[in-house]
Structures are given as C-alpha cells and as structure tokens.
Inverse folding.
C-alpha cells in the first residue's frame, strides 16, 4: 500500500497556481527526491503532504487517509518535517528544541517522561548534537542548528520524514553522517524519506525515486536514471548537463556544462 | 537524563524562591506599616481592610498583566508586545468608560463585559494592522500600530471624561495611569476569579506556546492547530486583562518587563515562564504600589507612574538590543 499518494492536486497562493494537477504515489520505505527550479513548488508540496496546507482541488492521502481529516497532533506522529529555517526570537536550549519533537506523542496536560528523554537523547546521539544540548539554539552555527532540527524530527518518531534542503548547511562529514543515518533508518525501520534538494547528484545518489517539478507540474517521475537525463534537465532548468555514471555506485552523475 | 532532571529541580526550587520573595515583600510591608503607625485599634482596620486588599489587588494586577505580556509576546513572537503597548489595555478602558456612560453598570458584570469587548476589538484591530505575516512579527509595524491605537484610545477616553460629568467615571489619572486604591472587595474578587481561571486555562496551553514561538509553520508541523490555539489564547488573555483594566485602570509596561526578565533567568520554556512571570509580576506590582504610596506620603502616586518610570527606559533598552 502506498503511504503517500496525491490525486490530481492543485494549490494556489492568492491566484497564483503553485501546484498544478500533481499525482504520484509513494510506497513505504522509498527514498524520494523532489527536485526542480526555484519556485517550482517543492516546499509547498512538502507542506501539502504533511497537511499544513490543504489542496484547493484533488486529494492528498497519508497512510490511506486524506490529510484534511487528520488532527494536527495525529499527523505529526506519522509525518515529520525538517524545515529550512526556524524562528529564533526567543532563546531556547538545543535540548528543549529537540524535546518539542515529542509534543505530538504527549498526552494532553502531561509532562515528558523518562521514555521521552531517552528518545530525545537517542535522536541527539544519532545527529551528533549531544555536545551542545545545553547551549542556546540561537547561538549555534547554521549547520549545528540544522542538526538540532533533524534531531527534533527524529524525536517525533515519524514513519515519513520530509526534508527541505536539510543538508545545505552541513559540512561534508555531517552530510555523510546524515545521509548514512537516513539510509540506515530507511532500511532498519522502513522509514519513508522524501527530500527536497537543489543538488541533482545528491538526489541521484540517495533517492530510489525522483520527482522532477516544473512550474507546479510533475515533469518527470521515476528512477534516477530515467529522470536525470540531459534532455529533461535542459527542458526544466534551461541548462546543459553531461550525464554519465558515478564510479562509486553507478547512479547517474550530472556535470554542469558552462562555457 | 539525570542532568536534565537536576536542571528541572533547581529551576523548580527557584520558582519557590520567587514565591518566597513575594511572601517576604508581603510581610515586610505589613511590618513596616505596623512599625510606622501608632499602636491603636485603628491599626488592624487599616491593615486588614485597607492595606491587605490593596496588596492582594496589586498582586492580582501584576500577575494578570505579566500573564498578558507572556501570551502576547509568544503569539506575536515579539518580545516588545504587551497589553499596554498593543493598546489592549486602552481598548478595555474605553469599553469600560462607554459602559459607564451608557449605564451598563446597572447590569451585573456589565462594565467588565464592555471592557472585554473593547479588548477583543483592539486585538482584532492590531492583528489586521500588523498583517497576517507568517514570518517573525519582529518588525515595528506592530509597535507602530500599537502607538496609533493607544493615541486614539487616549483621545477617546479624554473626550468621554470631558463631556460627561459623572461621579461614576473615575478620574483621568485612573484611566491613564492606573490606580489600585479604588477597588471594592467585590471587584477584587471578580478580578481574582478571572485571573485564576485564566491562568489555569492558559497554563494548559503552555506546551503549545513553546511550539508557536518556533514559528507558526513549525508549530503546525509538530501537531498544533495554530489558528484555533491562538484564538483561544487571545480571548482568554483579553478577558483577564479587560476585567483587570475595568477595576484598576491602565497600568503600563509591567507585561513587557516581567516576562523579559524572567526569560533571562529561567529561559523561554513557557511551562515555567508563565507561572514565574505571574509570581514575579505580582511581587513587582506590590513593590511598585508600595513605592507609589510611600514616596510622597501621605499623598499617593498612581502606580502606573512607577511602572512607566521603570518600564519606558527598559523598553528603549530592549528596542536597541538585537537578541532577547
């Protein structure tokens, strides 16, 4: 059964169509990359998947149930998102931020118990953030913050993890760690991962399926080798690329051709 | 895990210390009064029927205003927001004055009700003016709209006070600077009940507040129905503030100083911030009111003079800082 499926969804901000007749279906434990130029609707699509935005037309299903029917708290137990950025007006400690991932699991009017602390501790261990657990979030570097937000999403114990450009601020070592962690969670817990990225090679190497968006429509969907072609990229991004095989795992590798 | 537990223990001990401080202040006031006044049978009368209710009332007022500050700052994600700055207090006052003018006082709770409507209308107005921005509402449009709303309400209040010559209309200073000396036991009782009920309702929402200050999108992602929560919080907070204003007048700046100071000491977790702010706010206003009573004794200053004298410089200091 598909865990995430879209049936012909439209979404507009004001009158501007952002998502236009999008349909797709994602199986459990797939790793899906969403790529496309700026303004092609990638982030909006993520927000529609986790139900914070409701499509103007069409239907979005998560675990077989339409997103509009879920209570926020219920859907937050299934779907977690790592946002691009977060508000840091008020000072919180890194650990408090991660603990907020437990909110959808807390019973009403209850405080976190030992189990919640254990889960938070594990999430911080996996993301290598324990070292600054008691530092203030707003004083961390961009990469450190991003790891804290990833830890928060893991503490949510989701079945579907949505990532919005979550590797951009990470240095190489943490990028590698994070990508391995995703693979591992994907294999061991059958976590479904959907990630938005601008890095075509990152998508090709780490996704089992790629959605290529162009002005709110799905231009191509399928395995990396079928989507990452010179013709598709030329059409959608208006750039010339050379596609060959990456020697490490044979996934398609794009090289930007500049004059 | 144990470390976190220790932090929580220390923190909860500190909450106790603020309470002790309040207690301390309370006792020292009682002692000072007893010491100053000649020992006679009037002493007890003054203590228990004049001073005590007033101190209790000051505590209620301080707690309610601080509560309002915490909630508005969280919802607007702006550490400069408070019921006074946003004009909510002014709206309540205008509502109450209109209530008195049209004779709503003859109905049970008529005046607090109109104050409440005034507050709600102001909240609505402020949100429209500040726009439904999804980002941080740090920009000064909110403060500017508050300035405009406040100027308008001050003018309207003065207008009504000038054209109506009624014994029931308190003095101008009551409405513009606050006054804790006129409240009857019944009014204090109503304010206390509203504060208590409001606190319980608001406290139950504090985990959601923690998420909302991370940004509304984030709160939604983590399972909060933001619109619904915000509406509920605004209504309850407006109720607490408006009832208070209808019996104590407009006391400014408490709601801005107290939450900020408490955040510096206790961090931003609203489950802690809300109660410590209420307690500290209560202590603060008791002290402020005591100062207002004693500096030029036997003449009294309106308590709002003291809070504005501390609060306005503090506000400027906050405005010039980048982090909160």
């Amino acid at each position: 059964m598909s865990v995430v499926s879209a049936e012909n969804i439209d979404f507009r901000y004001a009158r501007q169509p952002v998502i236009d007749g999008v349909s797709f279906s994602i199986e459990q434990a797939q790793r899906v990359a969403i790529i496309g130029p700026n303004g092609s609707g990638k982030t909006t699509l993520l927000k529609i998947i986790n139900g914070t935005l409701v499509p103007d037309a069409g239907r979005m299903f998560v675990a077989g149930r339409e997103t509009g029917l879920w209570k926020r708290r219920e859907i937050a137990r299934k779907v977690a998102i790592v946002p691009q950025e977060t508000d840091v007006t008020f000072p919180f400690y890194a650990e408090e931020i991660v603990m907020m991932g437990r909110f959808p699991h807390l019973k009403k009017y209850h405080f976190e118990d030992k189990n919640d602390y254990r889960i938070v501790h594990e999430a911080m261990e996996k993301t290598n953030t324990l070292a600054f657990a008691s530092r203030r979030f707003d004083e961390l570097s961009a990469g450190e913050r991003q790891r804290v937000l990833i830890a928060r999403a893991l503490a949510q114990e989701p079945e579907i993890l949505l990532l919005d450009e979550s590797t951009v601020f990470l240095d190489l070592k943490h990028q590698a760690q994070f990508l391995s962690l995703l693979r591992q969670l994907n294999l061991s817990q059958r976590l479904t991962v959907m990630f938005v990225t601008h890095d075509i090679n990152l998508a090709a190497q780490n996704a089992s399926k790629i959605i290529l968006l162009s002005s709110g429509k799905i231009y191509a969907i399928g395995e990396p080798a079928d989507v990452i072609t010179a013709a598709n990229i030329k059409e959608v991004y208006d750039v010339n690329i050379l596609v060959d095989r990456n020697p490490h795992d044979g996934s398609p590798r794009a090289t930007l051709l500049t004059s | 895990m144990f470390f976190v537990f220790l932090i929580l223990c220390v923190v909860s001990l500190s909450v106790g210390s603020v309470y002790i401080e309040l207690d301390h202040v309370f006792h020292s006031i009682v002692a000072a009064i007893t010491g100053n006044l000649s020992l006679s049978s009037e002493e007890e009368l003054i203590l228990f029927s004049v001073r005590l209710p007033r101190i209790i009332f000051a505590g209620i007022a301080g707690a309610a205003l601080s509560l309002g500050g915490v909630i508005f700052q969280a919802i607007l994600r702006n550490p400069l927001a408070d019921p006074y700055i946003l004009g909510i207090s002014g709206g309540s006052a205008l509502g109450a004055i209109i209530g008195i003018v049209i004779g709503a006082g003859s109905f049970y709770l008529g005046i607090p009700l109109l104050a409440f409507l005034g507050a709600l209308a102001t909240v609505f107005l402020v949100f429209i003016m500040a726009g439904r921005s999804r980002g941080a509402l740090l920009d000064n449009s909110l403060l500017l709209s508050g300035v405009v709303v406040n100027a308008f309400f001050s003018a309207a209040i003065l207008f009504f006070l000038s054209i109506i010559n009624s014994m029931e209309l308190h003095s101008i200073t009551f409405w513009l600077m606050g006054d804790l000396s006129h409240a009857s036991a019944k009014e204090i009782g109503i304010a206390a009940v509203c504060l208590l009920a409001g606190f319980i309702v608001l406290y139950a929402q504090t985990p959601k507040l923690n998420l909302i200050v991370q940004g509304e999108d984030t709160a939604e992602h983590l399972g909060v129905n933001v619109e619904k929560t915000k509406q509920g919080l605004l209504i309850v907070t407006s109720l607490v503030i408006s009832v208070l204003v209808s019996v104590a007048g407009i006391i400014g700046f408490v709601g801005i100083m107290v939450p900020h100071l408490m955040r510096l000491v206790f961090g931003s977790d609203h489950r802690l911030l809300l109660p410590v702010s209420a307690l500290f706010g209560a202590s603060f206003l008791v002290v402020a009111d005591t100062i207002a009573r004693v500096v030029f004794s036997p003449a009294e200053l309106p308590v709002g003079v003291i809070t504005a004298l501390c609060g306005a410089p503090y506000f400027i200091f906050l405005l010039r800082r980048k982090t909160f």
